[in-house]
Structures are given as C-alpha cells and as structure tokens.
Amino acid sequence: MDAHIKKVYVPMTETGFYILLCLKEPDHGYGIVQKVKELTNGDIVLAPGTMYGSLSKMEKDGLICFQRAEDKRKIYLITDLGKEVLEIEMQRIDRLYRNMKEMR
Amino acid sequence: MMGNTKKVFKWFSITQYKQEEEYLSSMHRNGWKFTKVVFPGLYFFEKCEPENVAYRLDYNQEGIANKAEYVQMFSDCGWEYLFDFVGYSYFCKASDEADTHDEIFCDDESRLDMMKRVYRGRIIPLVILFFCIILPQFTMNVFGYGGGSIVQDILSVTFLVLGILYLSLFCIFTVQFHQYEKKIHPEDEQVKWKYAGIYFAIIACALVFGGAVCFKFSSDYNISDRENGFVIETERLNKTVVKEFDLKKGDVVEVTHQGDTGSWYVRIGKSDEEPIFYGNTYDEFERFSVEIQEDGTYQIVCKGRNAKGNIEFKIK
Q1: CA distances from B32 to B6, B7, B94 (A)
Q2: In angstroms, rounded to a whole number, what is the distance separating the alpha carbons of residues B162 and B131?
Q3: H-helix or E-strand spanning residue B117
Q4: Is A46 within 8 Å of B103 when comparing Cβ atoms?
Q5: What 3-state class would DSSP assign to B80?
Q6: B245-282 burial: b if 16+ Cβ within 10 Å, else e
Q7: Which end of chain A is less enclosed by CB atoms within 10 A, N or C?
C-alpha cells in the first residue's frame, strides 16, 4: 500500500468506512445511503455531494471498482486494495473499542 | 405578466457560495423562486408561495461530465437539480425548520474536497494569470517602457486594481481553506508550513505591488542654480519645481530640454495671472525661448510625470 493511500484513508472518515463496508456487496451510491440509514437507525444520512465525491475519489484510488450501470446509477464493488484498507481500519476501530471498554 | 418576475444583479466571488446559497433561500422565503442566472451575475426570480427551500452549490467537473448519474444521485437523495453556471451545479430541496438533512456534504472532509476542486478549477488559472500577466505587466508599466503617457498610467492603475482584487481573493480563499483544513488536521505540521508559505507568497506579492507604486510616485532629482537660471537633472521626477525670478521687459527665457522618458509640463508667468507660456511634452521640447513683455516677478513652474532627463532654464 503506498503512502498516498495511507495518508488519505488511514484513519478514514465515517462516510469512507461505511462505503467500503457496504461495498462488500455490489451496490450503487443511493443503495449505500439507504443501507447506512438502516444500520444506524436513521442517525447517519449520507449526503449526495459527499457520496458522489467519495465514490469517484475511491474509484480513482483503486479502493472500489465500477461494475455496471443500472438506471443511470453506477454500481461499485470493493477491490482487494479496498479490503486491505478496510481491514486496517477495522483493526483500528477494534482497538479503540477495546480500550474504551477497559478504561470505562 | 408584470411584476411576476424579477431580475437582480448580484455578484458573488468564487469563494462566496455560502452567501449565495443563503441569498437564494432568503429570496424563496420571501416568495421569489430562483429560475436562472446569466453571466456575469444576473439572477432571475419568479413569484411563488413563500417557502423554506434550501439551495446548495456543488463544484464537481467530473459530475458535470457524467451528468446523468450525478444528477440521479442527488435526486435519489431528494435534491432537485436546477442547472450549471460557470462550473457550479445548483440544487434545491424543500425543507422545514426541523430538517437536518439539508446539506449536500455531511462531513468536513468532503466539504474541503469540494473547495479543493474549486481551487484547482478556478483559483489555479487565476494564479497563473496573475503571475504571467498582471504582475509582469504592472511592473513593466511602472519601471519603464516609455512610462509617463496617459495610456500607460491607465494601464498601470488597471493592473494595480486587478492585482489588489486578485490578492484579496487569494487571501480570502486561503483563510477559508486554512480554517477547514485546521479543523480536520489540527496538528499537521505540513499543513502549517503550506499555509505559512502561501501567506508569505501573498505578502511578497503585495510588497512588490506596494514597492512598485512607491517607486512610481517617488522622485530622484537634483536642482543646481546657475548664473541667471537653473538646471534640473532627473532620474525620475514626479514633482513640481517652482522658481521665482524678477524679470524685465526684453529679457529672454531660454529652455533647453534633453528628455529620455516621461512627460514634462512647463509654465512661465506671473503667479496669479494667465501664463505667458504653457506647454507639455511626452518626449522633447527641444530648445525654445520666451520673450518677456512686461516687468515683474515671474514663476517658472516645471512639473514632471515619471520624467527622466535634463532641463535647463537660462535668462538672457
């Protein structure tokens, strides 16, 4: 993993994290928005400007790849590099969570 | 129908999209629906029911290039796409006071990304224009190239105004950018150095402008009194030199001028009367003489504008 990816995505934003998490299954931007809304009981509603910008940035950086278009909606899937980044992020959050539990 | 449409001229700079959004929302709250905008900043409105509508601007050239899916993403999220104007895409959404989802960016990171896109798309071309045209043109105008003509002065002032405008715009944008980036990466040394560098560059440019202006209006000259007259030798004259002489009928004032650049004004006459001679030049007066018709105290007024050369007044 090169320095650029590390600098931009470790640690990553909540938006970035949820995008990678959701794209383990192929999905389009709005699909991700709905899924995240469901996962967080409506607390997190990802905004379209953020979604569009993040998806195209992640596609350019090779974290996700374009699969096909469906009704003017681009469907993406996570790549191996994306999985690697997600794994690092999950471990970081795991540690965060463990430490929080211990210190509470 | 009369009174159902409204045209307003408003100018928002590249960095003032927040103010523009608020302006459009407040118009809609007062019953004026935004219909279109044309260059350079004429906003068209149509009468409507007063409503709370959020207007938002995005700057995404990739989105404009792939319009269908870009617009689809926004309309899925409840935003109506209006149109594009100079790189900005306009969206709106009906909202009530309690609606917290009336932003098109939900985190600072992506808002900063949008500002970076504005920066790349709009500010960098301006920076290039500034360094390749405005700064060199301005300094060239000030430091020579036949300086002193009216055209040159107008050009200098135009470039000065443009330069100040540009520098202020860079300043405002850098401050905005800095605030966001500081919020996201509060302890990043690289960010601190980057902005220190940018501020330094802006200050350096301002100093170049200021220095050039001071130089342009400064004078570097030497007056030496001779027997029956005086000589002004100048590197640069932007002042008025006045000398008084008691002259008699039949005296002759002989003026010899060797000019290089700039313009000269010469006036000879009694202090509160019509001058007996008045003339100006952009290059050379050559040599000429004025004969005195009446006894009295005369003033020789010599004024330079960016003038370089020697001028001699001799009384015979």
Answers
A1: 8, 11, 14
A2: 12
A3: helix B108-118
A4: no
A5: strand
A6: bebeeebebebbbebebbbbebbbbeeeeeebbeeebe
A7: C
Instruction: Tell me the ipTM for this assembly.
Output: 0.92
**CB proximity A48 to B under 8 Å:** yes
Residue the block writes with tokens 């006045």: B242
pLDDT value at position B290?
A: 84
Q: Cβ contact (<8 Å) for B106 and A45?
A: yes
Biggest CA–CA distance in chain A, Å, is 49
Helices A14-22, A29-39: inter-axial angle, 10-degree rounding:
110
- Whether B72 sits inside 8 A of A72 (CB atoms) is yes
8 Å CB contact of A13 and B107: yes
Concatenate the DSSP letters of all residues of B31-43 into one string. TEEEEEEETTTEE
- Tokens representing B172 are 């405002």
Q: Is-contact B68 A14, C-beta < 8 A?
A: no
pLDDT at B296 over 80: yes
CA distances from B273 to B240, B268, B269, B314, B315 (A): 18, 10, 7, 22, 20
Q: Which two tokens stand for residue B83?
A: 């149109």
CATH code for the domain of A38: 1.10.10.10
Residue of A nearest to B56 (CA): A49
Q: In total, how many domains does chain A have?
A: 1
- CA B43, CA B164: separation in Å to the nearest integer? 27
Determine the distance in angstroms separating the CA of B65 from the nearest CA of chain A, rounded to an integer.
12
- pLDDT tens digits, B270-293: 877 888 888 777 666 677 888 888
**pLDDT given at position B98:** 55
Nearest to B61 by CA among B97, B79, B88: B88
Mean pLDDT (whole number) for B47-51:
92
Domain enclosing residue A54, as ranges = 3-103
pLDDT tens figures, B83-119: 999 889 999 998 876 566 789 999 888 988 898 898 8
